[in-house]
Amino acid sequence: MDAIILQILNGLDKGSAYALIALGLTLIFGTLGVVNFAHGALFMIGAFCAVTLSRILSASHEVLVEGKTDFLGNPLKEDVPYVYDWFGESAGAAIIDWSVPLSILFAIPVMILVGVIMERGLIKHFYKRPHADQILVTFGLAIVLQEVIKYYFGANPIPTAAPEAFKGSFDFGAMIGLDPNTIIYPYWRLIYFCFAAIVIGCVFAFLQFTTFGMVVRAGMADRETVGLLGIDIDKRFTIMFGIAAAVAGLAGVMYVPINPPNYHMGMDFLVLSFVVVVVGGMGSLGGAVLAGFLLGILESFASMREVIDLIPGINQVIIYLVAIIVLLTRPRGLMGRKGVMEE
């Protein structure tokens, strides 16, 4: 039982990232009909927003330490972060420690701006072009963004710590009534799952219960009719592109303490996220989220030593095998709209 619960927790952790990225991909496809292969790059940019803010908050200057000298007898100097000068040492240390959660506030406007510029500057010119053209141009854009990040941040992963309060692990097994020390799980991975659930809930609530979201959903179903009613649906879809970019960026921000960001992390998640979207159903928001968590859990169970010993390498291909089976039996995906990918 403890092994099953542990694998479910691992699957929810992986599935959270898959679901958030796939949700943004589906928002873009459902509203604009664009297959956006640059969406993984948005996940990467979000991660480096956290790295950037952490570096800004940690920027320091040298000050003399009164009454102390180095081994040569020179006045001793130490680096003091600027935030210590602005907010005091205690508050400044707390701000630096909580740089990753604070990056959410920094990443949201940055990612919305990046998304709007991407949509208005490039993608809008490919709305009526074949999906193959959309894939080529957005994949090229992803490579450009990847190389820009590599130029400014280097090729090596950049460790960025979670807040001190959420480092380490806790006894999840004891909390649910099992023997102590049977299920020890990292705090931040559970924080990431809870954060993903909140973001997903907010997106669905926004689409379901706001006038803006209702118009967007109507435009997804029948764009031409909504336009004939005098509503500027293109402007609303541009805003949705920015929101989708923000969702992917936030997924990257909070993923930083789990996996140190590097310039190719967007590509690592992109292919898997597209598989998730296809399995869930192109254009289905609920399907993207459901498939993200289901495939995350399935991949986690396939990574168990007992399974790998029985079928070597199954953990590397299980998601693709599921995708093949789903597409052969149900081309529209688990919850896809009728007619999508069935032509």
Automatic annotation (TrEMBL):
Pfam families: BPD_transp_2. InterPro entries: ABC_transp_permease, BCAA_transport_permease. It is a multi-pass membrane protein. It is found in: Cell membrane. It comes from the Bacteria. GO terms for molecular function: transmembrane transporter activity. Keywords: Amino-acid transport, Cell membrane, Membrane, Transmembrane, Transmembrane helix, Transport. The keyword Transport applies. GO terms for cellular component: plasma membrane. The chain crosses the membrane at residues 16-35, 42-61, 104-123, 190-216, 237-258, 270-298, 310-328. The keyword Transmembrane helix applies. One of its GO terms (biological process) is amino acid transport. PANTHER family: ABC TRANSPORTER ATP-BINDING PROTEIN (PTHR11795:SF442), BRANCHED-CHAIN AMINO ACID TRANSPORT SYSTEM PERMEASE PROTEIN LIVH (PTHR11795). Belongs to the binding-protein-dependent transport system permease family. LivHM subfamily. This is Branched-chain amino acid ABC transporter permease.
